[in-house]
Design a protein that fits this description.
By secondary structure, the chain is mainly beta. About 10% of the residues lie in helices and about 40% in strands.
Length: about 160
Amino acid sequence: MLSLEEIEQGIQVTHKNTGLRYSIVDSGDEEVLLSPESADLTDLVVPVMLFRDEFVLTDRYSAPRSRGRGRGTRSRRNAPVVPSGPKVKGRIKKLVRDRGFGFVRGDDGKEVFFHRSGLGATDYDSLSEGDVVEYVVQEGPRGARAENVRAVAADAS
């Protein structure tokens, strides 16, 4: 776990699960703004406690060694991680646009957190409170989280 003293602008960090690398752009008492090393990804705002649990300093990180078949094999590290599990339908209960997250209430009555990092940028921007959506529930270190949140037609619910 990163200490609060290690969270400072310009430090390079790596996400433990995905191996993606980021630079710390800014940090506050509650959130950390990260800029990805890869140009095809967007900036990420992460709550400090989650950041401390899920990221390590890049110089402390060593990627798991692959069992490649020799030269010319492609690394699967850059392949996007697709959430697995049953799809759930529900409605957007609350959006906090300026902070990039929201809550969705499933047809089963359960309320689940989601973050814009689990959606495409244009998908998040097109969502509104009350929209009917479909998503996959994943367990994270802080509980259930909706991933791959996608708007669906209201009559499909």
